[in-house]
Amino acid sequence: MAQGVFYEDIEVGAVIRFGHAEVSREEAIDFATKYDPQPFHLDDEAAARSHFGRLAISGWQTGSMSMGMLARYFEQVGYAGMGGAGIEQLRWLKPVYPGDTLTMEMQTLDKRRSKSRPDMGLLNQTFTVLNQHGEPVMTYSATGMVAVREP
User: Do 143 and 85 touch, CB atoms closer than 8 A?
Assistant: First the structure.
């Protein structure tokens, strides 16, 4: 991976939209079978009787899909990421259904240099996952770690 986006390149307040992930019925059922085996994620009849009204994908799958979009975006732009220090305030706002298409928005709220690691910057960021109608379906905040170009 060519590293092209470092701590110094990240603008506080900028909103970046990226990603494309389509939700298939088969993937939704496979994921739910393995990791979130609740009836409204697995069975059409049970889902129809639930508050979802139809088969809904697991929120954990939405989270996994957002991580996939984020990692692919970072690879594409050459982001000099060093990992994450945690996620907070995860919220599932609307159901995601098979056939939906997801994108993401990322905003850096603030940034600071690490006191203990001069080669690292810390970012306070928010992430919003949107469906094909531009409606937020999931949000979370995260602390990211990114390399400093000139430690």
Answer: yes
The domain total for the chain is 1
Give burial (CB, 10 Å; 0-12/13-18/19+) of 33: exposed
Distance in angstroms (rounded) separating the CA atoms of residues 63 and 65: 5
Amino acid identity for residue 10 in this structure? I
Separation in Å, CA 12 to CA 9, 92, 125, 126: 10, 25, 9, 11
Q: What is the domain-level CATH number for residue 106?
A: 3.10.129.10
Task: State whether residue 127 is helix, strand or coil.
Answer: strand
Please check whether residue 2 lies inside any domain of the structure. Answer: no
Q: pLDDT tens digit string along 71-128?
A: 999 999 989 999 999 999 999 999 999 999 999 999 999 999 999 998 999 999 999 9
Range of the domain at 113: 7-147
Q: What is the pTM of this model?
A: 0.91
